[in-house]
Design brief:
pyridoxal phosphate binding, disordered C terminus, Ala_racemase_N, PLP-binding_barrel, globular, pyridoxal phosphate, alpha/beta, single chain, TIM Barrel, disordered N terminus, Proline synthase co-transcribed bacterial homolog protein-like
Length: about 260
Amino acid sequence: SGIQCWRVCFRDLSLMCDVKTIEISENMRVVLNRIAKCVSNHPPPRLVAVSKTKPVELIQRLYDDGHRHFGENYVRDLVEKADQLPNDVQWHFIGHLQRNKCKQLLALNNLFIIETVDSTKLAIQLNKECEKLKRERINVFVQINTSGETSKFGVSRSECVEMVQFIIDTCPRLHFKGLMTIGTSNSRNCMLTLVSCRSDVSSRLNIPESEIELSMGMSADFELAIELGSTNVRLGSILFGPRSVPRQTSTSSPVR
């Protein structure tokens, strides 16, 4: 009957979903084993599971397995998913942040860090919104454009120390936690540039290098990043597979 066909289809769909969630758990196990092989005399980096375009059910599976740090590129997606998941998920915002979205993002109590602070204007806006929301502090990484490409966001290497100094001196609601880069196909050079930026910040601002995190390394190069000192790797496709549906981007100029 039609009802029986529907039940069969529903059962098959459920089985497909189970296979997907099981694969996610296995993918995480494999990645953690690979990370363990990269570290010997220092703690493993924080693993941020980047769930762009993926359904909440897959995030929930990793949460049920014990994972807590997840990343999103778009404010709307992060807010929507945060509303459907437990409050102890530690969210990382890892996309380009427009100033008019700061309030919405900072309203999330379990926002762990904004990894992409790339201008003094954005830092000022975040600090103002924290004050308005009576939020004590929010962790931030300063994003560095390590490739020098005009298509990439981030401050230049030469502006790095000045940007960190600005946050420390004028944005008391922002907790400078480290440096971040997206990188390019020439990932080694980009990562080495970020390592050099950390050295510059450490020596010129008298901050121990051990207190400056490095967010670098994605699915294709996370082992190299760990070798070079990354403390925060952002892994998406290696865990969740390729993006499900390409997201349309606005043609208007971003508000920065």
